Records
---
Amino acid sequence: MASNKKYWQSVEELKEGSVVETLRGKEFVQELPTDEFLGDKETLENSSTSRRDFLKYVGFTTAAASLAACEGPVRESIPYVVQPDDIIVGVADWYATTIADGFDFANVLVKTREGRPIQIMPNKEANGVTNARVQASVLSLYDEKLRVKEPRKGTTQVSWNDANQEIIAQLESLKASNGLVYLMTGTLASPSTEKIIADFTAKYPNVKHVIYDAVSESATADAFEAMYGKRALPNYDLSKAKVIASFGADFLGDWQGGYEKSYVEGRQVDSGKMSYHVQIESNMSLAGANADKRIVAKPSTQLHALVNLYNAITGGNLPSQATPIDGEIKQLAADLKKAGSKGVVLAGINDKNAQLIALAINKALASTVIDTKNVSLTRQGSDAKVAKLVADVTSGAAKGLVTYNVNPAFSIAGFGDAVKKLGFSVAISTQDDATANATQFTLPAPHSLESWGDVMAVEGKYSLIQPTIAPLFNTRQVQDILLQWSGATTNYYDSLKEFWSTNVLGGASWNKALHDGFFMAAVPAVSEESTSEVSEEATGAGFSLSAAASAIAKLAPSQYELNLYTSVALGDGKLANNPWLQEFPDPITRASWDNYLTISPADAKELGFKNPIKDNGAIDGNYAKVTVDGTSVTVPVIIQPGQATGSFGLALGYGRTQNLKEEMQVGVNAYPLYKNANNVQLGVTIEKAGGTHKFACIQVQNTLAGRHDILREASLKDVNDTSLNPKHTWNKPFMVSYDHQETEGSARKVDLWDEHDRTLGHHFNLSIDLSSCTGCGACVVACHAENNVPVVGKDEVRVGRDMHWLRIDRYYSSTVQNDMSIDEFKAEFKAKLVEKYKNAGAASEEEAKQKAEKEFHKFADQEIERRYATEVLGLSKGDLFDALENPADNPQVTFQPMMCQHCNHAPCETVCPVAATSHGRQGQNQMAYNRCVGTRYCANNCPYRVRRFNWFNYAENKEFDFNMNNEYGKMVLNPDVTVRSRGVMEKCSMCIQMTQATILKAKREGRAVKKDEFQTACSQACSTGAMVFGDVNSEDTVSKLKEDRRAFYVLDYIGTKPNVVYQVKVRNTNEA
Amino acid sequence: MQKLYFYSMKSVNYHSKLSRILLNSLTSLVVFLVSFSVNAQDVDVERQKAGRKLFNANCASCHKLNKKSTGPALAGVEERRSNEWLKAWIKNNAALRASGDADAIAIYEEYNQANMTAFPQLSEKQVDDILYYTTVGDPVTSGGGSKGPDAPVLESGAPKWVIWILGAAIVVAFLIIFNLLKTVSELKGAPKTPGLLGQSAELWAGIKKNTFLHVLFVIFGALITAYFLFGNLSKVGVDQGYQPVQPILFSHKIHAGDNKIECQYCHSAAKHSKHSGIPSLNICMNCHKNIAEVAEGTKVVLEDGGRVVGKAELDKEIAKIYEHVGWDAKELKYTGETKPIEWVRIHNLPDFAYFNHSQHVTVAGVKCQKCHGPVEEMEELYQYAPLTMGWCINCHKETNVDLKGNEYYAKIHKELAEKYGVEKVTIAQLGGKECGKCHY
C-alpha cells in the first residue's frame, strides 16, 4: 500500500488527542455503570438490600419464572377456507411488477409469503435497479399510521358512493359554469392512465391536468424540447462512455433516476477499459465520491465552467466569466475531445440555459452516450405550468383542485392554506399527508403493491404493475375513480388490458408480459436526425445558445450559495414515515434521522461551527439560520470535507409532520428555500443560531480501531501494466517476519486454531468489488428486510447501538506530504538501533552496527512502513493536521461494505463461554440466539466490529414504536428468520436461511445446485454487481474472484482467514 | 369412503325437500318396508354384489341411491325410465342429448348443465347389474349381531373384589393366629417380649446413633432429589402427549386409518414446504360435499373419560364444516358466507428452531409416523414425539443419508468416497448437527 495515502473517517480524527482515539479502543462506547454502584463502599453499605436478600429475590424470581413457563400458551392455526391455487403455505411466491411513485421508477420482483409482500428485489431480466427507497417501499405498504383508510369529507367518514355522487355533482356544476379545475398529479408515465385522464378532461373540458414533480427536472425537459422538439429527458448509456463530465449531476444518486448500472458496466476493471469520470460539484455527492477526479466548485462556478467547457471544445466564443477552475476545465475539454463521441457531459442544475449548453456540448461531441430517441419520461413536470397553477389556486382563479399522490401543501409554501379556501378540492392519496388534510374530500388510493397499472419510464419499454396483496384498506385506484367520474362503466383492470392489447402488445401475450413485468415494444424507426453543427445563434427552434450563455455570464458568484439535494435515504420525502429509511445512514455523512446543512471546513472555521464528539461517540452540532430571498430556516450544521468553500448543501424531503410518527418527525423542511424549483440558490446569507443539535451519526463508531490497512487502491495504469506483479506492487499482502523470513501475514504457520477441511461440500464466499460499489446502500435495506433487523431509533443510534448487520464504511483519503521520506526514516530507524546497542554496552561501534543491522533485517519492510505510517504520517499527530487540512478540502472517498467476515478462524467463536457462536462446515459463522447469554465477549474480540447486541426488546415494545410494534408493520417480517429478543448478540448470517433454501430446493428436485444459484439478500439487491456470492467449491463466479489478482482480505494478517473477499478499488487516473 | 356412501341409504332423503320431520319419524318404517320388500323378492346376491361394485367404482362420486347429489338419486330409476333410454344415457349421454331427446335435455338442465361422464366401456350386462343394484339396494345386515366380534367375552375367573376380600380375610386370620400363639406362650410363662412398637423404638435409636447411615441417607436423598428435579425441569416446555380439544371432533382414525386416505392428500404442503399445512376447507369439501353423514354405527371413543361419541353427534361435526365453509347442504350450493376454523395447534416448535417438512418428507423420505406416531389409530390427535432438541439430534446422529439416487448428493458422495472410502454417512456427518442448520 502506498505509504503516503492515509485513510480517515472524520475530521475529528485528524486532531491531536482526539476523543476518537479513545473511542477506537472500545467496542461499546458506554461503560456499564457498575462502578458507580459497586465502587462506592458507602452506598453499598447503606443499601437496604443485602447480598442475602438479593440472592433470595433471584432465587424466587427464577423459580417463579420457571413455574410460570411450565404451561405453554395455546396457539391457534387457522387454515384458508379456500386456498388459492398458487399459494403453498410456507413457500414464497415472486411476482414481477413495477414501482412508480413519481420519484422512483423501478422494475422489481416482489417476494410474497402467504399473500403478504415482504421484500422487493430488482427484476434483473428487465434491467431493473433498486435503490434503498425502492427496497424499503414494501414497508410503507404497511404504514397504518400514515395511510388513508376510508374515504372522508372533511373529517367525517363517508361512503364511496356518497363521495363520488357529491363530487360528480360538483364537477358537473363547475363544468356548467366553466370553472377551472386542476388535476394535479406527479409524473405518472403511465400510458393507460394518460388515456383515462384524457377521456376525463374531454368529458370535463374545464379540467386541466398539471404534472407536478416535487423535485423538478423541468429545465432539462424544456431544454430538450427546445433542441429536439419533444418534451422529455435524454437517456444516457454510460456503459459506452470513455469520459464522463458531470456538472453537479448526482447520477449515482437521484439525478433523473440514477444511472449507476450502466456507469459501472462501463467501468469493469478486468476488461482493461474504464471510463474516466470527472465530477465538478459543490456538495459531496455519491457521484462525486465515486469520481476519478473531483473538482470542487461553487454552483455559480459550475455554470460558468460549463460555458467555458463549451467554448474550449467547440472553439466558440460564448460570453462567459473566468473561474478558478479554468485550467482543469481546459484539461477536461481536451479529454472530452479526445474521447469524441464516447464523451458525455451531464448537468445537474435545474436551469434551462445550463441544460441547453450541456446538450449543445453533447451534440458538438456527437456523443453516442446520450440517447435522444429512447428518452426518459420519469420527470414530466413543467415549472411554468405549476407556477401558473399555484398562482391560479392562490388568486382564486381556479375553482377546484383534484390532487393525486402529490403533497404540494408540504412542498409549496402557503399552498395548503390556498387549497382550504377553494370551493371544491379532492385529494386522492395513499398517504394522509398535509394535502389530504387540506382538501374537502380525501379519497384513499392503494399502494403500488396493491394496484394494477402500467409504466413507460423509457420510451418503448412498457412495464406492468400488478397487485401482490389484496387492498389492506378501503381504497380505490385513481384510474377507477376517474373512470367513474367520467361515467365509464368499465373498471381499470379491463380498461388496462384493453389498452394493452390494442396499443402495446401487438398480438403478443398479455400473460407473458404480466409474468415478465415488462414488454419491449418495437421502437418505430425515427428518421436519422441531422448531425448539423449547432449554431451559436438562434437555431430556429426557438432557442439561442448565446442568449443562454449571456444569461449565465450575468450571474455573479455570491459569497454563499446553496445547493439543495435529495438524500439517498428520503429522496423527495414521500417515504419520510419509513423507519428503515430514517435509520439508513447517509452514505457520505453517515448521519441518520436528520437533514443538515453541509458546510466546508474552511467556512466552518470562519463562521465558528463545530461538530464536537462526545465521549460516548455521539456527535453534536450548532444551528445555523440560512436565509434565501427573505425565507429563513434554522438547520443543524455538519462539517463536510470536500464541500466547496462558500457553498452549502441541504437535503429536501425532511421536516414532514402531518400524521408522521413522532420519532419520524425529524429534520427541517427545506422546500421553502427551493425557490423557482431551482436546486441552486445564490445570494444566501447565514448566521449562527443558538442551541446544540444532537446528531445520530455513526461515523466514529465501529471503526476498525485505527487499523488503517484495510483498504487497497490502485490506479488503472498500474492494474493494466502486466509487467507489475500485483503481489509486490498494488496488492501487496501484509508481510510479517516469521523465522527471520519475510512471510505473508495471512500465510503464517503459527495459528491458534486447527484447520478444517474446507474442500468438501459447499463453501460460501462473498466477493465485494470496491470498484463497482457506489455506496448506494440498497444492500443495507435489503438486509434489514431479509433478516428482520430491528430499527432502534435516533437516540440509540446516537450512542452507537445501531443494529445494521451490514454497514457501508466511508473512508476519506488524502495524500500526505511530509518532509521525511521512507528512506530517511529507515536510516533514522537504523541509527536508533545502533544507539540502542551502544547503550546496552556493545563492545565497539562496529559490533553495535552489526547487531543493529541484524535486528533491522528482522523487521519486514511492511513493518517498517507501518511504523513510518504511524510514527511519521500518523493521523492523530497535530503537526500533520495542517498538512492534511488542504487535502481535507477535497478528499477522495472509498466505500467499503462491512459485515461479518465469517472468518474461518474466528476470534469471536473462541471467546464465547457457551459456544453460542460456532463455525459451520459451509463457511458460515453461525449464531445460535437461543444459546447466547449476552456476555458480549464476542463483540469485544471481533476485529471487524460487526457484531450487534440487543440492548432491548425491539419487537413488541412501545418504547421502540417502529414496524415491529404494530400488527401491520409486523406483516413485513420474514417468517424464516427469528426475531431476536433482548440480551442476545446478532450479526450477519450470510443469509443462511437463503443458502439452506437453495440447497433444499436442489435436493427436492434431485439435481445439483446450479451455477451462481446461491444468493444473499445483499448480493441480490446489488444492481451494479459489486457483491457476488457463491460456493467456492463449485463453478460459481466467486470461485474465480477469490483467486483474482485484485482479491484481498481485510486484516487477514491477524490470522482470521475471512470468507468475505474484497477486490482492490481501481481509479482511472487518466494516465496513458 | 365407499362404505360410507353405501350405508347412508338408510338415513333416507335427509336432503330431500320433503318435510324432514315427517321423514324422520317415518325413517324406521321405510327402512323396514324397504328391507322387507327386498327380502321378499328373491335377491340375486351375485348380481347385487357385482352391481354394487360397479356402482361404487363408476357412479358413486356423483350419485347416491336415495339422495340427490351432483346427479339425481338413482334408487328405483328403472321404474322411472325405460331400460333402453337408461343404457343410451349411460353409454353416451351427450349423444342422447344431441339427438334431441327431451328427457335427456331436461335432466341436463335440471342439474346445472353438469356434464356426466360417458361410459362406453360398460357392457350391457354391467349396466344391467348396476341398474339391478339401484333397484334392490344394499344387502340388509341383520340387526343385533350376536355372532359379532363385539359380543362380550365372559371372564373365567372370579371378580376382583372377591380376591381382595379373600386376601384381607387371610391376613386377619394370620394376625389372629399370631396373637393366639403369643398369648398361649405367655400363659405358659415365657418372658414378655417387647411389643412391635418397642422393637421399632430400639431400632430407631440405633439408626440415630449410626453416622454411616446418616451419610448414606443424605447421599441417597440428594440423588433422588436431583433425579426428580432434573427429570421434571427437563420436561418444562416439553408437551409430549399434548392433546387439546379441537373445535371439530376430527378423527384421524376414521380418515387415515379406516378409510386409508393418504396423509399428503390433505397435508399436501408437506412435500413442498416447511409447513405440512392444515388442509383448507375446500380440501375437506372434495369428499364431504357428498358425505354429509357418517356410516351407521360409527363411533369415536374419546380419550377423556372414554366417552363414546356416536353417529348423531358426529354428523353434527360434519355439519360444522358446512357452517364454516358456507355450504348449504339442502340446496347443495355455497352461500359465500365463510368463517375459518380455528384449530388448536398441537406441534409447537419454538420460534428459534427452523424445521422443514419437505426436507424430511420429500428428500429423506421419512414416514410421517416416525415423528407423529400412529396417527391412523388416533381418534383425537396428540403430540407423539417430545420434539426436544435431543430427540432431533439423536435421529440426525443415527440416520444414514441415502446419498444415491439424488443428483444433488452425487458430487459429495464421490468426494466422500474418495476421501474416506465410505459408503454411508449420517446426517450429523454431513453437517446436520451444526447449530446454524436449525437456528437462524
---
Amino acid sequence: MKKLFVLAMLVLAMTGNVIAQTKLADAQQKQVIDEVDRAARAMSTMQCDFTQTKTMKMLKKTMNSQGLMYYKRPDKLRWQYTSPYDYTFIINGSMVSLKSQKTHDKIDVKKNKMFDQITKVILNSITGSGLKNSADFTCVMYKNGNIYSAKLYPKKKELKQVYQNIEIFFNAQRTMVTSVKMEEKTGDTTVIKFTNVKTNAPINEKVFAVQ
Amino acid sequence: MRKFLLFSSMVLLLCHCALARGNDIPDWPDSCVVDSWEYNILIQARGNNVTGLCLMNLYPDSSIIGTVVNDFGVKVLDFTYAKGKAQVMNVFGPINKWYIRRVLRGDFAFILANLRRGEDVVAKKRRLTIMPNGDIQVANERYKINYVFSQISCQRAQSSLLELPSAAEIIQTQFHQ
C-alpha cells in the first residue's frame, strides 16, 4: 500500500505540469482566437519596455537584455535593445533596417524569404494577430488558470529550420500579449516579457523611419 | 539478450554524449568554468553582415565551449575547441551546409587558438589583426570572410542596465519635438 502511494505521488509530481496546462477544445480554441483577433484589430499602436532572457543549452547560461518596443498597425515596428548593447531593428512595410554600433543594413523582405517569415512572426507575436487561419503555423491553445497561451508550430521550411515552436501568452482579458517564448531547434529558448504597456497612444512616424 | 541490451544502451549513451558536445570535451559542471569571455561579434561574408554576441567558457583542460547568437537572440552556431581542433554545431538553419561548417570549423580553430595572444598572427590564408581600438579582426582571405571581435566591458553592461530609460521617456526625448 505504501509503495502504491509513493508511486502515485511520483506519477502526480511528474505529470503536474501537464495537468496545469490544459489544451482547449476546438470550439473553445476558435472562440478564444476570435477574441484575440478582435483585440488585435482594435489596437492601432502599442509601446512598451521588454526584457529578453535567452537560455543557452550549450553554455548552460542565460543572457538578459532589455529594450523598447513600438508597434503601429499593420506593419510598423521598432525593436530597440538598450542593454547590454545598442541594437535597433525597424520594420516599415517591406523594408527592414538593422542598426548596430558597427553596421547599418537595409533589407527588402520581399527579396528574402527567411526575413519575410521572421518579420511576420515578430509582428504576429506582438499582437497575437494571425492566429486565425494561419498559413505559417499550426496553432494549439492552452489554458493555465486564467492565463491563455497559443503554441505555434511552424509549417514553412524557413521557420522550421530555426524554431521548434513559439508560445504566445495573453493577459486574463485576452486583449494583450504579455510574453512570448521561442524554442529553437537547437534547444535554446528565448522568453520576451512586455512591461509598461501603452496601447493606442500616438507614436511619431519618425520612430519607424528606415533611413 | 540482456548483455546485448546493456551493450546497445551504452553505445547509444556514448553516441549521445559525443553528439551533444561535438568532440572530446567532457560535460564540465558550471563550477569548473575557469574564465568566461564575452565579445560583440561582426561576421561579414559576401556582402552580408551578422552582428551579435560571442560567449565562451574556458575549462581546466584549456578547452573552450562557446556560442554565437545574433542581435535578435537567435543562435547562429555553437562551437567547441580542444587540443587545437574546433567543432561547430547547431548552425543556423539556412547556413547549415557541410561546406559552410567546414570553413567555419577551420576559422574557429584559428580564432580560438589566437584570440587572446595579444599580437597579430598570419597563417596560410588566415590573418588575425589587433586593431588600434583593441578590436580583433580575423580575415579568411580565401573565402573573403571577416570576423571582428570587440570585448564587452562588464562595467558598461552594468551601467546601461541601471540607466535604462522607459519607452515613454525615450519617446519624449527623442521623437517629440
